[in-house]
Design brief:
about 180 residues; mainly beta; Lipocalin; 3 helices
């Protein structure tokens, strides 16, 4: 009985904390180099989904992102459209704080999101109040972005609540060509 209990506790610990932890420095020197202030300039589109901890896809969505520079600040206006027709808007305000580090703010983000970049990777960490059913859950994000040759940006965010992994958001970003009528 004790052995079964200890095994269950060990598996729970591994499930919630993982066996190893990536660091942005693990990706130093990898190309293409990810500089979010350059990557998100203009119009970017993303396609994504949320899988719960059991691997069930719960939501699918697209995001149209308009990125503009306002002095040192990168402003990302994100318009989400979910498969069920729900829409959502989030506006990020991101500042490079030096040596591959960033700070970001958005209305539904608690406090300040912190980011660290190296090579083709960027890791964001933040908490957000997320609508779930008729309530709101405070969820922690461990968000990783990886720039690929050809301009596709892969994003995987592990979400946890009270330190327990609850699911993963996967996104694929692609810059969109400037519209002709926008220049006129």
């Amino acid at each position: 009985m004790l052995r079964t209990t200890l095994t269950a506790l060990f598996l729970a610990l591994v499930t919630t904390t993982g066996c190893a932890s990536m660091e942005p420095s693990d990706f130093a020197g990898r190309t293409p180099e990810l500089r979010i202030e350059d990557y998100f300039a203009g119009h970017t589109r993303a396609w994504g989904l949320f899988e719960d901890r059991f691997g069930t896809v719960r939501r699918e969505f697209t995001v149209d992102i308009r990125g503009t520079r306002n002095g040192r600040e990168l402003v990302l206006e994100e318009d989400f459209v979910y498969a069920d027709g729900e829409t959502q808007r989030r506006v990020w305000r991101i500042v490079a704080t030096g040596d591959g580090t960033y700070e970001g703010r958005a209305d539904d983000v608690i406090g300040v999101a912190t980011g660290r970049a190296a090579g083709n990777a960027l890791n964001w960490r933040y908490e957000m109040d997320m609508a779930v059913g008729d309530g709101t859950w405070r969820v922690a994000f461990d968000d990783w972005m990886f720039l690929q040759p050809g301009g596709v940006l892969i994003n995987r965010a592990h979400l946890s609540r009270w330190g327990v992994w609850i699911g993963t958001v996967s996104l694929f970003f692609q810059p969109q060509p400037a519209r002709q009528d926008a220049a006129e």
